[in-house]
């Protein structure tokens, strides 16, 4: 293959013009993004570049959805590979036939797959019309433009091959087939066609380049930037507010979002993966994570001209309840994080919702009435149920266990602090779970203790519902109590406590090793400190807590623990692991009424459909919600909902 420069001076000028137009669009949008608040997101360059490579080159998240993920991959590489070759062949060189022919075949196949993928994406969007996709004119034109680029590329190849003879050009099978009818034309016409199709193909590519920042394809530059600037901190930890110095708590105006949060809005490609997995949306609520992002973007674009002139106050349309996001949508979120974990652009939906909750609660004094009660209970008695603080140890007597209550005067030595949690202390059902954990620890000879009445709510319900001030108050008191005892390692039976203690307490100087009871009990089994002595015949399905699977990446441990139980058959639900369906209790929803189809009922139906007679859980909220869901199906006499600790207690010694 002999490289031949097909680009002339005019073409180079057009290339520069296309680059300039694209750069102008990127700069204009970057200036709009700069209207937000600064946020440091540039550290650990190596990890950021690696993440971009995995997301872009490997299509890690995109490939989770099939077959459209595969079709997008075809489209992506059908552009990347030929464009790379085109750039290279602008330098004159000779490639021997033994390499040129396979390269030609590879390019033909890659482009063929790209065209196929684009056609299938078009067919899916406009033929199948899945609910998660909303169609705008730019969607249709972008797909038509891409298909036309592929077609003109093949026609360019076909017209070139029509000028040649010999069957060695079967190495370009698509072009060879398309060239057959062109042989009927006079050679001068074919020469004209080569130039015509090549120019048309080139100009379409340049038009695509120039239009990158302005429409559907804007997710290419802004999506890559968004992935590069993704949060590398502890997964799921919300940003703290400096209560002493902050002038505004949370976000009530779009310009109060950080620049990275505004980049999120620009990166959204409206693929609807977040919406398809949102438990609120899938049970008929108005909340759609995709719509939240798009509504905020529309509001931001409308307000930006006022902000540039320093006249933001003159823009009268409010961001919350009136212009951007509805009040109901903000409070419908369960903070399950499925939207964020599935988003190929790594957009941070939940953080924005929590920031808006903070503004409503701390600046406007607005929250659902149930959360008013919740926060009063936390303020007065340090637990969501409002039971007297002095009764925090009563569960021990009721459940006939005697964990050691640690005191500063005793200066105790212990292996691990058992974080009882509010559910363990006050919820009748979960008291039995924590009691099972205590008995298992006693069997294994673990040296442990509890804080007793010194333990207060970890703060998760307060922070998730927007009351950052109350959250930080609870955190400070818990850290002081634990540091006075020299706590190093904490065992939590609640995934919400696990997330808060392990990922958010370090923001305030509380640095501890925190493990979930599924991890700790598995370790005891592995060490031989616990061993199974009896079988438990039955069929069990395990429900993954959102805060255990997506926040903590703990999926295998509970299953390994359950797998050690002889006679117990594990039946997975269709949505399990990190793809699980929420129970509906996160984000403060545990204490709120739910209208319409209940999320927990949907999940319970899915669990019952496995034919299991046991439903396993590892979270107090999930345990409650699934129990209620089973009762709603009138199956409580046939199916038990148990925590993994209760199951393990039955079979170990």
Oligomer: single chain
Runs in which pLDDT lies below 50 for 5 or more consecutive residues are 1-5
DSSP helical segment count: 27
Q: Residue-averaged pLDDT, rounded?
A: 93
Rg over alpha carbons: 30 Å
Q: Roughly what percent helix?
A: 40-55%
**First-last Cα distance:** 74 Å
- Strand order across the largest sheet: 1-3-2-4-5
**Which structural class matches the secondary elements?**
mainly alpha
Largest sheet, in brief, is: 5 strands, parallel
Count the E strands.
9
Secondary structure layout:
Layout lengths: L8 H25 L11 H12 L11 H21 L8 H32 L8 H25 L11 H7 L7 H25 L7 H10 L30 H9 L5 H5 L11 H20 L18 H6 L5 H5 L6 H15 L5 H13 L12 H6 L4 E2 L10 E4 L1 H6 L1 H17 L3 E3 L9 H5 L3 H18 L3 E4 L2 H10 L8 E4 H10 L11 E5 L3 H4 L6 H8 L4 E3 L28 H10 L5 E4 L2 H13 L7 E4 H8 L2
Helix pairs in contact: 1-7, 3-4, 4-5, 5-6, 5-7, 8-9, 9-11, 18-27, 22-24, 25-26
Describe the structure.
The N and C termini lie far apart (74 Å). Strand 4 (489-492), helix 21 (495-504) and strand 5 form a beta-alpha-beta unit. The strands form two sheets. The chain has a five-stranded parallel beta sheet with strand order 1-3-2-4-5. A four-stranded parallel beta sheet has the order 7-6-8-9, with helices on both faces. The longest helix is centred in the N-terminal third of the chain and has 32 residues, at 97-128. It is built from 27 helices and nine strands. Helix 3 packs antiparallel against helix 4 and helix 9 packs across helix 11 (289-308). Helix content is 53%, strand content 5%. It has 653 residues and is mainly α.
């Amino acid at each position: 293959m002999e490289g031949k420069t097909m680009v002339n001076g005019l073409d180079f000028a057009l290339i520069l013009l296309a680059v300039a137009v694209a750069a102008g669009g990127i700069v204009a949008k970057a200036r709009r993004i700069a209207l937000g608040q600064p946020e440091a997101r540039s550290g650990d360059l190596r990890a950021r570049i690696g993440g971009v490579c995995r997301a872009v080159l490997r299509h890690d998240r995109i490939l989770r959805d099939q077959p459209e993920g595969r079709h997008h991959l075809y489209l992506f590489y059908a552009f990347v590979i030929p464009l790379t070759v085109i750039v290279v062949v602008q330098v004159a060189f000779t490639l021997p036939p033994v390499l040129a022919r396979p390269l030609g075949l590879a390019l033909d196949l890659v482009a063929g797959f790209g065209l196929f993928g684009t056609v299938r994406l078009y067919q899916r969007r406009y033929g199948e019309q899945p609910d998660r996709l909303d169609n705008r004119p730019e969607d249709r034109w972008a797909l038509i433009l891409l298909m036309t680029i592929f077609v003109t590329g093949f026609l360019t190849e076909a017209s070139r091959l029509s000028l040649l003879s010999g069957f060695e050009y079967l190495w370009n099978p698509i072009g060879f087939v398309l060239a057959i009818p062109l042989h009927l034309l006079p050679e001068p016409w074919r020469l004209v066609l080569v130039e015509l199709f090549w120019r048309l193909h080139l100009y379409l590519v340049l038009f695509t380049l120039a239009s990158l920042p302005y429409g559907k394809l804007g997710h290419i530059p802004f999506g890559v930037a968004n992935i590069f600037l993704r949060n590398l901190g502890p997964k799921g930890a919300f940003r703290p507010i400096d209560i002493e110095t902050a002038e505004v708590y949370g976000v009530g105006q779009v310009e109060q979002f950080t620049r990275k949060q505004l980049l999120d809005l620009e990166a959204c490609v409206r693929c609807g993966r977040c919406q398809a997995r949102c438990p609120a949306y899938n049970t008929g609520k108005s909340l759609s994570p995709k719509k939240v992002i798009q509504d905020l973007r529309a509001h931001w674009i409308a307000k930006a001209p006022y902000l540039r002139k320093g006249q933001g106050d003159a823009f009268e349309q409010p961001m919350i309840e009136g212009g951007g996001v509805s009040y109901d949508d903000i409070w419908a979120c369960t903070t399950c994080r499925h939207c964020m974990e599935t988003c190929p652009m790594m957009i941070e939906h939940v953080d924005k919702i929590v920031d808006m909750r903070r503004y409503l609660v701390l600046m406007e004094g607005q929250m659902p009435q149930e959360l008013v009660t919740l926060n009063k209970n936390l303020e007065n008695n340090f637990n969501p149920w409002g039971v007297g603080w002095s009764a925090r140890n009563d569960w021990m007597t009721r459940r006939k266990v005697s964990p050691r209550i640690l005191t500063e005067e005793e200066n105790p030595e212990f292996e691990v602090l058992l974080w009882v949690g509010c559910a363990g202390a006050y919820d009748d059902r979960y008291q039995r779970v924590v009691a099972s954990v205590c008995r298992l620890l006693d069997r294994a000879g673990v040296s442990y203790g509890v804080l007793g009445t010194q333990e207060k709510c970890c703060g998760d319900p307060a922070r998730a519902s927007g009351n950052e001030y109350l959250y930080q108050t609870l955190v400070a008191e818990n850290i002081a109590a634990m540091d006075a005892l020299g706590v190093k390692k904490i065992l939590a039976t609640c995934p919400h406590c696990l997330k808060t203690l392990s990922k958010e307490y370090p923001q305030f100087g509380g640095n501890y090793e925190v493990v979930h009871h599924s991890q700790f009990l598995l370790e005891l089994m592995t060490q031989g400190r616990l061993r199974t002595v009896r079988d438990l015949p039955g069929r069990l399905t395990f429900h993954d807590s959102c805060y255990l699977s997506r926040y903590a990446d703990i999926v295998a441990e509970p299953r390994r623990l359950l797998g050690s139980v002889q006679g117990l058959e594990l039946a997975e639900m269709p949505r399990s692991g990190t793809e699980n369906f929420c129970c509906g209790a996160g984000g403060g929803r545990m204490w709120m009424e739910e209208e319409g189809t209940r999320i927990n009922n949907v999940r319970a139906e899915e669990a019952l459909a496995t034919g299991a007679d046991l439903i396993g859980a590892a979270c107090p909220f999930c345990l409650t919600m699934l129990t209620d869901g089973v009762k709603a199906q009138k199956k409580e006499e046939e199916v038990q909902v148990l925590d993994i600790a209760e199951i393990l207690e039955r079979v170990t010694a």
